[in-house]
């Protein structure tokens, strides 16, 4: 959008010179030829002339409807505005600072608001650039770097680890993305496969083979293994125990670690490739439930930046991973035995190869007409897994699941999704039947009673 920035000195230009906003195409109207030359060297268009004279505005305006941002001392405002109005009576006009009593701008913009809008982002970016420089300098002397994630890394961790390796400018051979566990959820495996992200499983003793160790989306205290001081921790989870790291950036207010790494890449002017942008966008949306849970202004800004750079066809493929043929037999059992009771869709799957299928089918059964709750269960080796999804607002799923199964094993979650995992021996020790028919009946009874208590 073509617009006019009218200013008596270089203050406004220095503020806006690094704005990076391609939507604006400003024409700077200034009085000092030296300032005009500086602006030209920066690549912007500039005109010189008396700000309270009409001549410079006759050259500057093309249609007469270009918006004008005016930043001159109050004593000259009225004369400058009058000159602009004689050339372009209908031009939208914004005055920076307090407008004089005889001025008639459409909008006034206080200096404080202008400073906050331009200086604060610039200062934040400067701070982030400093952090990036510190991280790069620290890792520059290391030949082999290990970037650690949690035992079953989620999209936020995977994307953040990849972003950190990109920030350090290292190839795969010089910076390993690693976990002590494995990537298990179908959508996470689809993410690594489709985006070609290499995640290696390592043993704790392997840490000594690397010159430096970084952690993303996790902290040393979160591991069962006793780990010494690491070189870097970048995370958005609360610091439950003091983090032993030479460098750390922990922001519990953020919805995703991917947001922090996006800020790093932007501050360092790293060229963002489509695959990495897709991974980071998925990391933010998965950890914030599509910006519905715990998202901050920073997450929204990172999302808005990444969105046009990402491949949304690939995102849809990741979010709807392929089902193995054997999973269809499991689904058939669940469909055959489904029960809709007072708005709750119950389905017991029987033996299941991996727990992620239980959660995946819980999402599916919530789509059944008349279902406000989806409660799907299955036997995974020697454990009973129960996944719950909730589409309403009456009770939090985590509270209901905790009430229903908390006395038997691990149980809890969020408002719209929760799970319980109970060992079969503990289930039987509580006097409950361990066959599939008995498991299904007990889940209906216990969950139904807990939901009635929650509804009051």
Characterize this entry briefly.
With 456 residues, the chain is an alpha/beta fold. Helix content is 41%, strand content 20%.
Please explain how this structure is put together.
By secondary structure, the chain is of the alpha/beta class. The protein has 16 helices and 18 strands. A six-stranded parallel β-sheet has the order 3-2-1-4-5-6. A six-stranded parallel β-sheet has the order 9-8-7-10-11-12. The chain has a six-stranded mixed β-sheet with strand order 13-14-15-16-18-17, with helices on both faces. Helix 1 links the parallel strand 1 and strand 2. Helix 5 (111-139) packs across helix 8, helix 9 (274-287) packs antiparallel against helix 10 (297-306) and helix 14 (397-405) crosses helix 16.
* Number of discrete helical segments: 16
Structural class: alpha/beta
| Mean model confidence by pLDDT | 89
DSSP summary, beta strand count: 18
Beta-strand residue fraction: 15-25%
Q: What's the story with the biggest beta sheet?
A: 6 strands, parallel
Helix content: 40-55%
Cα separation of the termini: 57 Å
Give me the side-by-side strand order of the main sheet: 3-2-1-4-5-6
- Which blocks of ≥5 consecutive residues have pLDDT under 50? none
CA-based gyration radius: 29 Å
Sum up the overall morphology in one term: elongated
């Amino acid at each position: 959008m073509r617009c006019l920035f009218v200013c008596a000195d270089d203050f406004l230009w220095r503020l806006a010179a690094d704005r990076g906003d391609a939507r604006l195409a400003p024409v700077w109207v200034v009085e000092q030829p030296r300032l005009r030359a500086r602006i030209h060297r920066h690549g912007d268009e500039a005109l010189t002339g008396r700000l309270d004279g009409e001549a410079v505005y006759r050259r500057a305006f093309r249609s007469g409807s270009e918006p004008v941002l005016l930043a001159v001392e109050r004593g000259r405002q009225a004369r400058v505005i009058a000159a602009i109005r004689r050339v372009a009576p209908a031009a939208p006009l914004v005055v920076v600072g307090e407008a004089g009593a005889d001025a008639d701008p459409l909008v006034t913009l206080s200096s404080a608001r202008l400073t906050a809008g331009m200086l604060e982002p610039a200062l934040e970016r400067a701070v982030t650039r400093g952090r990036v420089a510190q991280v790069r300098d620290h890792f520059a002397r290391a030949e082999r770097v290990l970037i650690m994630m949690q035992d079953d890394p989620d999209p936020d961790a995977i994307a953040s680890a990849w972003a950190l390796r990109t920030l350090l400018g290292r190839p795969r051979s010089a910076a390993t993305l690693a976990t002590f566990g494995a990537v298990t959820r179908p959508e996470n495996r689809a993410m690594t496969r489709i985006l070609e992200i290499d995640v290696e499983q390592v043993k704790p003793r392997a840490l000594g083979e690397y010159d430096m160790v970084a952690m993303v989306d996790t902290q040393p205290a979160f591991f069962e293994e006793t780990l010494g001081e690491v070189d870097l921790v970048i995370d958005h989870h609360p610091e439950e125990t003091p983090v032993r790291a030479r460098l750390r950036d922990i922001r519990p207010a953020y919805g995703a670690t991917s947001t922090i790494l996006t800020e790093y890449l932007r501050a360092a002017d790293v060229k963002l490739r489509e695959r990495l942008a897709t991974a980071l966008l998925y990391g933010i949306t998965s950890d914030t439930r599509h910006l519905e849970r715990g998202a901050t202004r920073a997450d929204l800004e990172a999302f808005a930046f990444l969105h046009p750079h990402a491949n949304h066809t690939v995102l849809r493929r990741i979010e709807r991973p392929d089902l193995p043929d054997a999973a269809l037999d499991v689904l058939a059992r669940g469909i055959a035995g489904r029960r809709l009771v007072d708005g709750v869709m119950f389905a017991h799957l029987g033996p299941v190869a991996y727990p992620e299928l239980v959660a995946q089918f819980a999402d599916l059964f919530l789509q059944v007409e008349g279902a406000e709750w989806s409660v799907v269960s299955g036997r995974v080796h020697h454990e009973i897994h129960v996944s719950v999804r909730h589409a309403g607002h009456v009770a939090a799923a985590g509270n209901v699941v905790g009430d229903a199964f908390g006395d038997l094993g691990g149980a809890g979650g969020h408002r719209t999704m929760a799970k319980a995992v109970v060992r079969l021996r503990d289930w039987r020790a509580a006097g409950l039947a361990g066959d599939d028919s008995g498991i299904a009946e007990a889940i209906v009874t216990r969950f139904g009673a807990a939901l009635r208590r929650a509804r009051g």
